[in-house]
């Protein structure tokens, strides 16, 4: 015979399990679509807002020219030599890449973080969302999103640093006319393997970068909610979200930056139309790139462009997280990361 106490306990257990399962992301088509839209829009808005600084960072990473030293002098040089278009050169390709990348990254993070939490709860039923779980979810999401859109990143990098049309004509070459033209030319002349040049350091770099971004951002939000006595993270002000995102972006980028430099150099390695590295070194791989860069230019070369990137990445990551959170409130994709 079942006692009232046992019945009550069983009901409570079921209610607790139901509450926990309700935290898990919804997999309905509508929820998936809304989540992907929120992530894609967040990525496009954030990257366009900092496009001039993004291009300056790449030029500093692969160029030995002093014209790009410093944020103000570098932006001024681009403005004087190429005008407004120069400031946003390559941004179209960047948005084509970042929109699906951001959509997949945010979507995968939500599911991977909850998947890891569910796995932990098979061993510890009282396990809660913590920094390590978020770090693992972010790292996994970063790898999937980066790998899925890497060819677009490679093309974007080349469009960003290629010579001006006049210089290309003088050297007997021709510029890529756009994303599709770049894709066909690279495939014909270099093979499809060229689209994944620099992939290895990218994978290694994206693990701490995206992992730390999500882990620090979500953890800082939780702590801020507790400090301000709010009901949930959705009650946080936009300013508080921007601060949390800025801190997360700065920490993640500092750790992963040398791998980003290596990735860019490998992407333009041996490519004669690179206006900043024509006739430059041809690297055999990631380790050769690191070794030669340090030997020939010093350790500081692995951090070329980091100052410009701090100015870029902090608002970029902050805007992306805040736009995503706000769109989730508007679109209600039924996906959330909770502390429980």
From TrEMBL:
Membrane topology: Multi-pass membrane protein
InterPro entries named among the record's database cross-references: MCP, MCP_dom_sf, MCP_transmembrane
Assigned keywords, A-Z: Calcium, Membrane, Metal-binding, Mitochondrion, Mitochondrion inner membrane, Repeat, Transmembrane, Transmembrane helix, Transport
GO BP: any one term: transmembrane transport
Principal location listed in the UniProt entry: mitochondrion
Positions of Solcar repeats: 30-115, 129-223, 236-330
GO MF terms, alphabetically ordered: metal ion binding
Cross-referenced SUPFAM superfamilies: Mitochondrial carrier
First and last residue of the signal peptide: none
The UniProt record lists the keyword Metal-binding: yes
Location(s) in or outside the cell: Mitochondrion inner membrane
Cellular component annotations (GO), alphabetically ordered: mitochondrial inner membrane
Highest taxon, organism lineage: Eukaryota
The UniProt record lists the keyword Signal: no
Family as reported in the entry's similarity comment: Belongs to the mitochondrial carrier (TC 2.A.29) family.
Protein name listed in UniProt: MC family transporter: aspartate/glutamate (Ca2+-activated)
Organism: Ostreococcus lucimarinus (strain CCE9901)
Lineage of the species this protein comes from: Eukaryota, Viridiplantae, Chlorophyta, Mamiellophyceae, Mamiellales
